[in-house]
Amino acid sequence: MTDRTWRGCVVPEHLVYDTDRHVWVRFEGDTVVLGMTDIAQTMGGKVVSISWKRTGKEISRGRSLAVIESAKWVGPFPTPLTGEVVETNARTFEEDILAANRDPYGSGWLVRMRPTRLEEEREALVDAATAYERYKDLIEKEDIRCFRCAD
Hints:
Number of strands: 11
Mean pLDDT: 94
Strand order of the largest sheet: 3-4-5-11-10-7
Helix content: 10-25%
Number of domains: 1
Low-confidence stretches: none
CATH architecture: Beta Barrel
């Protein structure tokens, strides 16, 4: 399995995606780890701050798990699944606010949650091949070239 890349924008094969919200999902046991896609971190620019929802809180699909402020944008980080917030990656972002800009699919993950309506909501998520085709069209239309922040 190789990751798919278009104009520098990476779509890892081992994840699933909510392309409308620009969120990736990784299943880990009974939890999911969520983060912003490479396309999202590029469109938003360098992250300046993040306000997190508290752990233990139940958040409905489409609602905000955090508010992200970047160089170009301020807005919600929406959840593609309904569930309980189990953990945030706040500590990593306190140490390196650019974690999502440097490594959006690794250390720059944002929230871990326990889905409560997975059976009915999973169908809204797409595999990497489908996400790649959708993102390829968006990248061309918006003339996006992904980049990662360097030290």
